[in-house]
Write a structure and sequence with these properties.
CATH class of the largest domain: Alpha Beta
CATH superfamily of the largest domain: DNA polymerase, Y-family, little finger domain
CATH architecture of the largest domain: 2-Layer Sandwich
Radius of gyration: 24 Å
Largest sheet: 4 strands, antiparallel
Number of strands: 13
Strand content: 15-25%
Shape: globular
Number of helices: 18
Mean pLDDT: 90
Strand order of the largest sheet: 8-11-9-10
Low-confidence stretches: 383-403
DNA sequence: TCTGGGGTCCTAGGACCC
DNA sequence: TCTGGGGTCCTAGGACCC
């Protein structure tokens, strides 16, 4: 999708059209640009740029908070449209998808015709523009769609992949970021064509497994774990996490622990939504100087219970925090799913009790919003003042916002 | 420039097992 | 004495993507 978040915001407020728009938050907030309109991009604003920087480059831009629910909803509509064109659709992210069009010619016609129909149907059903790359390999299709933006279609004929890629910057290859770019530049490699001329064995020796994949990519082949899988297979999440950056760094333990408790609740809620229990819990701490540590702990048994998660995370925090050091960011990460039924061990009765209580709490949240119910630990330490200071950081956007959350 | 939040994949070292 | 080779699991960190 083209400038997806911005385009969705334009559906809600058409007066934004054509103007420099930045989605991500207020210009004086800690945060980065999620999406910039094409008008804003003319000033050098781009995603991942700090909001404060974007403001300096384009003070006249309209800065908007993001609306994840709106984007999710639009993304689902996009998916429905794509499903009309192929049964094999894989949403690669909220605004990007792969379609396997094998065997759809009789229904949709040749590639270019199908793509044009897709664009028209997309605009009609969602009001949004997209761009399309057509190729025999998904990586080439992806790069093709990037080159086609905005609102364009690009078909790379089979057998002409290397020729299409050769003049492009290596940075265009998905997986080549700042670091790899620098490493390749140091070897005099700037264009994909430079890469294609090298021996795969040389790249492998230099960059390991990744080097070998790079050699393949430079020729237009799908390579690497993600690109090798078939289109359309969706295997649930491998990890679930939440993190929070304070608007001002803090060393206040009460405030830190209440934030951790809140993050644990959010993680627990998502685990239960997916019917998962996690064996490994990980704490993330970022200090004022941006130095970041992660500390994990694995249990034999998995859990999806907020209080159990919080106990483990708090222990990790107390053991690893440099007392007095100001904290910028906290994160809670769950992974290592356990299969189905868990063992009945000591403490199982307590576990069952919490499981029932949380099921009730989740129902209340469904009806009254995420802030309807909360652990007492999340409410201590000035959580509510904090919530006021930064309303966007409230867990979820409840339909109602009760004045008095009920401590569990 | 003063750096979000939610993810995936990869590497490397160490504990432990046979 | 001075030290194998295969494997798995765990932890920590980092590159990268949208």
């Amino acid at each position: 999708m083209d400038a997806f978040f911005v385009s969705v915001e334009e559906l809600y407020d058409p007066s934004l059209k054509g103007k420099p728009v930045v989605v991500g938050g207020r210009p004086d907030e800690r945060g980065v640009v999620s999406a910039a309109s094409y008008a804003a991009r003319k000033f050098g604003v781009h995603s991942a740029m700090p909001l404060r920087t974007a403001y300096k480059m384009c003070p006249q831009a309209i800065f908007l908070d993001g609306h994840p629910e709106r984007y999710r909803e639009a993304s689902e509509k996009v998916f429905e449209v794509l499903r009309e064109f192929s049964p094999l659709v894989e949403m690669a992210s909220i605004d990007e998808a792969y379609l396997d069009m094998t065997g759809t010619e009789r229904l949709h016609g040749p590639p270019l015709k199908a793509a044009h129909r897709l664009h028209a149907r997309m605009k009609e059903a969602t009001g949004l523009n997209c761009s399309t790359g057509i190729a025999a390999a998904r990586m080439v299709a992806k790069i093709g769609s990037d080159q086609a933006k905005p609102n364009g279609i690009l078909w790379v004929l089979p057998g002409r992949e290397a020729e299409f890629l050769a003049p492009l910057d290596i940075r265009k290859i998905p997986g080549v970021g700042k670091v790899t770019e620098k490493n390749l530049n140091a070897l005099g490699i700037r264009k994909v064509g430079d890469l294609a001329r090298l021996e795969p064995a040389f790249l492998e020796q230099r960059f390991g497994k990744w080097g070998l994949a790079l050699a393949g990519k430079s020729q237009g082949l799908d390579a690497g774990a993600w690109f090798e899988s078939e289109i359309g297979e969706d295997e649930g999440p491998k990890s679930i996490s939440h993190e929070h950056t304070f608007s001002e760094d803090t060393a206040d333990t009460a405030r830190i622990e209440s934030t951790l408790s809140r993050l644990c609740e959010m993680v627990g809620r998502r685990l239960r939504e997916h019917g998962l229990t996690a064996r490994t819990l990980q704490l993330k701490l970022r200090y004022s100087d941006f130095s970041t540590i992660t500390r994990a702990h694995s249990n034999e048994r998995g859990t999806e219970i907020d209080t159990e998660i919080y106990e483990a995370i708090r222990e990790l925090f107390r053991r690893n925090w440099k007392p007095g050091a100001k904290v910028r960011l906290l994160g809670v990460h769950a992974s290592g799913w356990t299969e189905g039924g868990q063992l009945n061990l000591v403490g199982e009765e307590r576990h069952e009790k919490w499981a029932r209580t949380l099921a009730t709490a989740d129902k209340l949240r469904d009806r009254f919003g995420e802030s309807a119910v909360s652990l007492a630990a999340s409410l201590r330490g000035g959580f509510r003042e904090h919530a006021q200071e930064n309303p966007a950081s409230l867990p979820g956007k409840g339909r109602s916002d009760p004045k008095d959350p009920k401590p569990l």
